[in-house]
């Protein structure tokens, strides 16, 4: 009987852990818009998303990936940078930031969607 209780308790713990890391609907991320990127990034990671690390195109962008592995590209003229996160089930989250320096990055938009390959 104790074995059955242990199996049931373990199963319930796994279900609870999966519920914490579930993908949030895209509308729930609207609160990140205007937020400093470092704080927004922490909220996304704390919600169970992980940085989606793929090498950026330019060398200077790859250097920024040391601090933000999820950074995929930046447009020097506009100051916009694109970052991607991925959930445990493969759903992508695209976060666009703007700012003149890494320290001044603020979230401009958030949407679900994977980068074009």
Can you describe what's shown?
The structure is a single chain. This protein is of the alpha+beta class. It has one domain. Helix content is 30%, strand content 24%. Strands 1, 2, 3, 4 and 5 form a 5-stranded antiparallel beta sheet that branches. The N terminus is likely disordered. This is DUF4258 domain-containing protein. It comes from Massilia eburnea. Keywords: Signal.
Keywords, please?
117 residues, five-stranded antiparallel sheet, 5 strands, signal
Low-confidence stretches: 1-26
Average pLDDT rating: 79
- How many domains in all? 1
Strand content: 15-25%
How far apart are the first and last residues' alpha carbons, in Å?
Answer: 52 Å
Label the overall shape.
Answer: globular
SSE run: HHEHEEEE
How big is the Rg? 17 Å
Helix content: 25-40%
- Helix tally equals 3
Number of strands: 5
* Main beta-sheet annotation: 5 strands, antiparallel
By secondary-structure content and strand pairing, the structural class works out as: alpha+beta
